[in-house]
Amino acid sequence: MEKVLISDHFQAILERGYHELISTQSIDLLRLLFDLAMSTNLMGPLKKFWAGYTRTQVSDILKVIDPLKSSSITIGIKKILDFKDLTDRVSKEAFGGHEEMKAA
């Protein structure tokens, strides 16, 4: 019964709060969400949202880089490295380094 209730609402949970949990680095809540996905066979939607989030964030960073301005490139590189640190932390601490989430 629990799995049915969760699976019926899991997509809505992701749509309403997943991006905010990552951007605010809510590691404990992300870990709970990951554990919930693992226990209910809902890794597919979680992986999809993780991949979408990373794609969108990197795309947004790249959009503001002006290749004609070295300061813009420097700032862009810093933002990309900061974002990489964030994704590494989330992947390791919230997702336990799970291979399926690394490949997303």
Write the layout of secondary structure elements.
Layout: H1 2-23, H2 27-39, H3 43-63, H4 70-94, H5 99-102
Anisotropy-based shape? elongated
User: Biggest sheet, in brief?
Assistant: none
Strand content: under 5%
Give the tally of β-strands: 0
- How much is the radius of gyration in Å? 16 Å
CATH topology: 5 helical Cullin repeat like
Class by SSE composition? mainly alpha
How far apart lie the N and C ends?
29 Å
Q: What is the mean pLDDT?
A: 89
Q: Just give the CATH class.
A: Mainly Alpha
The count of domains is 1
Q: Give the helix proportion (percent range).
A: over 70%
The helix tally amounts to: 5
**Low-pLDDT regions:** none
CATH superfamily: Cullin Repeats
Query: In the CATH classification, which architecture applies?
Result: Up-down Bundle
SSE order: HHHHH
